[in-house]
Design brief:
Helices cover 30% and strands 12% of the residues. It starts with a helix and ends in a 16-residue tail after the last helix. It has helices at 2-9, 20-26, 86-90, 135-138, 192-201, 216-245, 258-270, 293-307, 311-317, and strands at residues 63-66, 72-73, 79-80, 83-85, 100-104, 111-115, 123-124, 157-158, 172-174, 182-184, 190-191, 205-206, 249-251, 290-292. Strand 9 (172-174) and strand 10 form a beta hairpin. The strands form six sheets. The chain has a four-stranded antiparallel sheet with strand order 4-1-5-6.
């Protein structure tokens, strides 16, 4: 406990306490746990790859953090950094403009300087990449930069580059406290010239032939949320298969029961918290019973929500059912 207190005290000021126990869990094999921004993650301690969005912390996989890109904490108390899983780091098809990385061994926590060979020059996002907003959708709104109405045909309202829906999503920010995963800003769109200035001032650049979306709703809906869904679905599928093979139920009543063994596997696969015997053990003096699939899924969902307090992730976990799993509709506007 003393070690945990010292570790907490070294965390960046202003970060949320949620998830610190999970950070301690996936750093438990490290001789010296790291509290610097390269290894910090609030909430459930997810460490997603910036390219494929797979959570590297789940199985203590190696991460490569770019030391030339800025590392900071955003408005949602999440670390904003560029990092790659081992597969994406090694892939010549995935390009990045910087060569200097810090490799973090997921098993030992060792930090090692690396120089990446797959480097490419950057290109800038331009206003020409921005989807135009129909005049009827822009309505009487004001530009998020100049605060002027959209009244001139040569200065139409536009959304962020990479938005894949029509009409484009309004301006938004990622927000883990919102079930949707993001919150829309009061001023929804920008004049094309104002957006051009935003892209230049923000130094928005990309490598390769396919620019990553700058539209926050699309980033969540098309990339981040599907990865969470994939993790939870793996746990739900494992439960379903195990219960089918067991004839529809598993016995409980001892600390070495089949239920405890099954949930140990599900916790690792489905990225939910550890399920202890207290979750389903009968009270003292009561006889042990059986758990059916619906009861097992309820335990899976409950423990998952304890590990993932963010409403945005709980909204992904909610569709887990004992008959099938479905991802909610993508359009949330």
């Amino acid at each position: 406990m003393e070690r945990m207190s010292v570790w907490r005290g070294a965390l960046p000021q202003g970060t949320e306490p949620d998830g610190l126990s999970n950070m301690a869990k996936w750093q438990s094999t490290w001789a010296d746990p790291c509290t610097k921004l390269c290894c910090f993650s609030s909430h459930c301690a997810s460490q997603p790859c910036s390219n494929c969005h797979q959570n590297t912390a789940r199985h203590r996989e190696n991460r490569m953090v770019c030391t030339e890109c800025p590392i900071s904490i955003d408005e949602d108390h999440q670390v904003d950094a560029y990092q790659l899983c081992q597969r994406c780091y090694d892939a010549a098809s995935h390009l990045h403009q910087h060569a200097l990385f810090c490799a973090i061994d997921g098993g030992t926590g060792q930090h090692t300087a690396l120089t990446r060979v797959h480097v490419a020059p950057t290109e800038e996002y331009t206003a020409a990449m921005c989807p135009q907003v129909p005049a009827a959708r822009a309505g009487d709104g004001l530009c998020g930069v100049c605060m002027c109405p959209f009244e001139y045909p040569d200065q139409p309202a536009v959304g962020w580059p990479g938005c894949c829906v029509s009409p484009p999503h309004p301006d938004a920010r990622l927000d883990s406290t919102a079930p949707a995963g993001f919150s829309f800003n009061e001023l929804e769109f920008y004049h094309s010239d104002c957006m051009a200035e935003l892209l230049i001032r923000g130094k928005h650049e990309f490598c390769g032939d396919t620019p990553a979306p700058l539209c926050k709703p699309c980033l969540w809906l098309e990339h981040t949320r599907p990865q969470w869904y994939k993790d939870f679905k793996a746990g739900g599928d494992l439960l379903k298969k195990a219960l089918e093979e067991a004839g529809g139920s598993i016995p409980v009543g001892s600390h070495d029961s089949a239920a405890l063994e099954l949930f140990a596997q599900v916790s690792a696969v489905g990225y939910v918290g550890y399920v202890g015997a207290e979750e389903f053990m009968p009270a003292e003096g009561e006889a042990g019973g059986d758990l059916n699939l619906e009861e097992c899924v309820e335990i899976f969902r409950r423990v998952g929500k304890q590990m993932h307090p963010q409403p945005s992730i709980q909204a992904v976990l909610d569709p887990v059912s004992y008959t099938h799993l479905t991802l909610p509709t993508k359009r949330i506007v």
